[in-house]
Amino acid sequence: MHGLSFDLNTGVIAGRPPVEKRLSALAGCWVDPAAFARACATGDPVVYQVTSAPDEPGTGGLGYGLGCLFPGRVGDEYYLTRGHLHQRREAAEVYIGLAGAGLMLLEDERTGVCRAVPLAAGTTVYVPGHTAHRTINTGDAPLIYWGVYPNDAGHDYGFVGERNFRHIVVAVDGHPQVIDRAAYRPARL
Ligand code: ZN
C-alpha cells in the first residue's frame, strides 16, 4: 500500500465506502433517554461515518481510518461516537484533527479517571492503552480526524453498554460543559 487521497472537508477517502452510524444505532449512549426517543421520532440522521484504509496484514503494521462526526445534539448532549476500548488493551492510538472542533473523552478502565481533551483542526490526541475513548463534536461543522492504531488493536464496545463514560458533554446556555454523568438532570418542559 502506498497512500490514499482524501478530502479533509468532507472526510471521504477516494474509492473507499464510508461506514455510516445513524442515530438509531446509538441507543444506550445518551444521558437523556427521553431526548433520544424524541430525536429518533423526528428522523434518523447519520451521526458519524468512518472510512478505513485497507487492512495491512501482518505483525507490526498500522491501521488507520478517517472519521467524520457531524454537528448536532440529542437534548443537551452533543453528538458523540459510541466509543470503545481496544481488544488488545495495551494498544494505543493517535488522533489527528483536520477540521472542526470538539473533544475526546479518555477514561482509564483501571482507575476510572476520565479526562476531556480538545480535538480540533490542528491538534492531536494521544490515547494510551487501557483507555476508553469517545469523540464529541461541540462545534457547528463536521469534526474530521484521522485515527492511527496498531492493526491488531481491535474494538471492544462492551464498556459503553456496561458503564458508559463517567463524563458527558452538554450545552449549558449554548456552551459546552463537561460534567459528571451522575450530576446531570435534564430540564423538563
Ligand atoms: Zn480506538
Question: Which descriptors would you attach to this protein?
Answer:
globular, 189 residues, binds zinc ion, three-stranded antiparallel sheet, mainly beta, six-stranded antiparallel sheet, 15 strands
Explained architecture:
- With 189 residues, this protein is mostly beta strands.
- It has 2 helices and 15 strands.
- Strands 3-4-5-13-8-11 form a 6-stranded antiparallel β-sheet, with no helix packed on it. Strands 10-9-12 form a 3-stranded antiparallel β-sheet, with no helix packed on it. A two-stranded antiparallel ribbon has the order 1-2.
- The longest helix has 9 residues, at 33-41.
- It starts with 5 loop residues before the first strand and ends in a 9-residue tail after the last strand.
- The model has no long low-confidence stretch (mean pLDDT 94).
- Zinc ion binds next to strand 13.
- Zinc ion is lined by residues 84, 86, 93, 133, 147, 149.
